[in-house]
Specification:
271 residues; alpha+beta; 25% strand
Length: 271
């Protein structure tokens, strides 16, 4: 990357706040890919074939595999399966910072709660432990990745008179269901925050985030396409960043979406 682009990214990089006790924070995607096996086929249909085992994959070779199999389905696999019951009990007894997930009824409603209860029952009947996959991912990440340092992946795009600073945040796992009473868990999660700079103006333009779909109100203006704020709006109390000249994004628990205000989320800062 050009040094001037790196300087721009560092100048305006957001301060992202996470809830204390979250299991999965943004990390470098390269070591994650190296710890993954590569498979082809439909994982939901259990019709998959191993292409590359763990330890033989890089970002460059992954890109080559994507081009070679562009007409097929490829997926990475970080963990081979959930922890069994004894291992999950030991994991839950480990000494670490805890957080309290939201009430399931308040999070998804009565009908969705009923469906979720049936799904949890089906997991138990099939011998699969709810939350075991998230626990396995946390153990794998702790043992094989550097999770002590949060990271983002930066990209600078110039188009139509704007310089767009893209800040991509990667998490190895999204435990929305097992930890936060959401709908599902899944491996690998990307979220994005952008800062728009006008080439013919002094200072930044608008920051934008990548929220999940939400109810649109005059106060939030959230939509599936993204959330945008004026730069002056970030100077209000909920937007203010502890680092002068930067904006602040607050990650909603485990969903990793980045609406610009969420007063219930506080704790972990990342610059």
């Amino acid at each position: 990357m050009d040094p001037s682009d790196t300087a721009l990214l560092r100048t305006y990089e957001p301060v992202v706040r996470f809830t204390e006790g979250e299991l999965f924070l943004p990390t470098d995607v390269g070591p994650y890919v190296a710890r993954c096996s590569l498979w082809t086929g439909d994982p939901d249909a259990r019709d998959t074939t191993l292409l590359v085992p763990v330890g033989e994959r890089t970002l460059e070779s992954l890109a080559r595999a994507g081009r070679a199999h562009r007409d097929g389905a490829l997926h990475l696999r970080f963990v081979t399966g959930p922890l069994d019951r004894p291992a999950l009990r030991r994991w839950r007894r480990e000494d670490r910072t805890r957080l309290r997930g939201g009430d399931r009824l308040a999070a998804v409603g009565v009908v969705a709660r009923t469906v979720d209860s049936l799904l949890r029952l089906s997991l138990l009947l099939r011998g699969r432990v709810p939350g075991g996959l998230a626990a396995a991912a946390e153990v794998e990440a702790r043992e094989h990745l550097d999770i002590s340092r949060c990271a983002y992946h930066g990209r600078v795009v110039r188009d139509a008179g704007y310089v767009v600073l893209q800040y991509w945040y990667f998490s190895v796992f999204n435990d929305w269901r097992s930890t936060f009473s959401g709908v599902n868990d899944h491996e690998a999660d990307w979220e994005l925050v952008c800062v728009y700079l006008a080439e013919d103006a002094d200072g930044p333009g608008n920051p934008a985030g990548s929220p999940h779909p939400a109810t649109t109100t005059p106060a939030t203006s959230c939509a599936a396409a993204g959330t945008t704020r004026t730069w002056s709006a970030r100077e209000t109390t909920r937007w203010s960043s502890p680092v002068p000249g930067r904006t602040r994004a607050i990650s909603r628990r485990a969903t990793r979406s980045s609406p610009w205000h969420c007063p219930s989320c506080a704790g972990r800062s990342m610059a």
